[in-house]
Design goal:
Blueprint: H1 3-25, H2 34-54, H3 63-82, H4 93-118, H5 127-146, H6 157-175
Helix pairs in contact: 1-3, 1-4, 1-6, 2-3, 2-5, 3-4, 3-6, 4-6, 5-6
Length: 183
């Protein structure tokens, strides 16, 4: 399977879980401020790094489920970032699905462009390096958030969320084990 097809397969599974949770919980995540979403991504990435360092986990959620969580929280972050402040908190499931598809399409386009220019260099990275890159991007986002979104020469937070999403997909591709979706 080429990168584009594999990307779509992973996204399909992530989206399925996302929409099932939206059916169960609605869009309760809309109450979260953007820094809280960033912190949720941090928690997941930090857990992955801890498991990578310790070589074992004391709870049943595996690393794959944490990467799936990073992907879905990155989508939440992009939705929260670009919805107007007065947008409804309870979004209809059809709108959630459209927004999910929109941000995935934009992020995949970015991945394809970068893969072209970098020659799919991610294939030669270790999974731990992908985890470290996600953590670095989180710290960048936190700094931008602490600066009220202002940057001098850097890309904004959306580009960082897109990179984190793509790194998480690359990690799942490198794990090359069947994805196990947990609730």
């Amino acid at each position: 399977m080429d990168t584009s097809e594999a990307y779509d397969a992973i996204i399909s599974q992530c989206k399925e879980l996302f929409l099932k949770k939206a059916a169960d919980y609605g869009t309760a995540w809309r109450i979260m401020r953007l820094p809280s979403v960033t912190d949720q991504i941090f928690i997941k990435a930090q857990r992955i790094r801890t498991i990578e360092n310790n070589q074992f986990s004391k709870i049943s959620d595996d690393i794959s489920s944490e990467y799936i969580g990073i992907i879905n929280y990155c989508i939440i972050a992009m939705i929260q970032l670009e919805l107007p402040p007065d947008a409804e908190e309870n979004l209809p499931i059809t709108q959630v699905q459209q927004l999910y598809d929109h941000y995935v399409a934009e992020t995949k386009e970015l991945m394809l462009a970068k893969n072209h220019d970098y020659g799919e260099a991610w294939r030669d990275l270790r999974i731990g390096s992908l985890t470290d890159l996600i953590l670095m991007k989180i710290f960048r986002v936190k700094q931008i958030e602490d600066n009220s979104g202002k940057t001098l020469v850097s890309e904004g937070v959306k580009a960082n969320y897109q990179d984190m999403l793509n790194y998480a997909i690359f990690a799942l591709l490198k794990l090359s084990t069947p994805l196990k979706i947990t609730s």
